[in-house]
């Protein structure tokens, strides 16, 4: 059964990004529609299971918004104003709703990377 998950690692401190805010959106007719707003748990993951489970998973265009600057400021990191990275936006497609899609984020105040995980 398909589902969507994410995991965020703070590469500056070498730990999960506990407390980072995340918004999941579906892009419908070119417009974002918020599906979930959450705060990552102690392991940098979504509490309570996947972002989308088998019942809510559907093919289409999606967006994850990660509140990077607020997270690092809350950790005591002094950032310029405006921060180099404020919100990291990842747009991705789900072609097969029966498959597991995992969208990890490795992030610091100055860089990030992502990939389709397993």
Give the count of structural domains.
1
- Helix count from the secondary structure assignment: 1
Largest sheet: 4 strands, mixed
Span from first to last CA? 14 Å
Helix proportion: under 10%
Write the layout of secondary structure elements.
Blueprint: E1 3-10, E2 15-16, E3 21-28, E4 31-39, E5 60-67, H1 68-74, E6 87-94, E7 100-107, E8 112-114
Parallel strand pairs: 1-7
Antiparallel strand pairs: 1-2, 3-4, 3-5, 5-6, 7-8
Explain this structure:
There is one protein chain. A hairpin with a 4-residue loop joins strand 1 and strand 2. The protein is 6% helix and 46% strand. The protein has one domain (3-114): Immunoglobulin-like. It is mostly beta strands and 118 residues long. The two termini are 14 Å apart. The strands form two sheets. It has a four-stranded mixed sheet, with no helix packed on it. Strands 4-3-5-6 form a four-stranded antiparallel sheet. The chain contains one helix and eight strands; from the N terminus they run βββββαβββ. The chain has one helix at residues 68-74; strands at residues 3-10, 15-16, 21-28, 31-39, 60-67, 87-94, 100-107, 112-114.
Provide key terms for this protein:
four-stranded mixed beta sheet; four-stranded antiparallel beta sheet; 1 helix; globular
Question: What's the quick description here?
Answer:
The chain has a single domain (3-114), classed as Sandwich (Immunoglobulin-like). It has a 4-stranded mixed sheet, with no helix packed on it. The protein has one helix at residues 68-74; strands at 3-10, 15-16, 21-28, 31-39, 60-67, 87-94, 100-107, 112-114.
């Amino acid at each position: 059964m398909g589902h969507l998950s994410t995991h965020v690692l703070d590469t500056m401190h070498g730990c999960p990004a506990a407390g980072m805010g995340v918004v999941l959106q579906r892009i419908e007719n070119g417009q974002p529609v918020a599906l979930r707003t959450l705060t990552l748990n102690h392991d940098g993951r979504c509490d309570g299971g996947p972002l989308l489970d088998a019942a809510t998973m559907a093919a289409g265009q999606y967006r994850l918004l990660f509140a990077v600057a607020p997270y690092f400021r809350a950790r005591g990191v002094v950032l310029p104003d405006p921060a180099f990275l404020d919100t990291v936006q990842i747009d991705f497609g789900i072609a097969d709703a029966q498959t597991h899609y995992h969208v990890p984020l490795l992030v610091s105040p100055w860089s990030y990377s992502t990939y389709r995980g397993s």
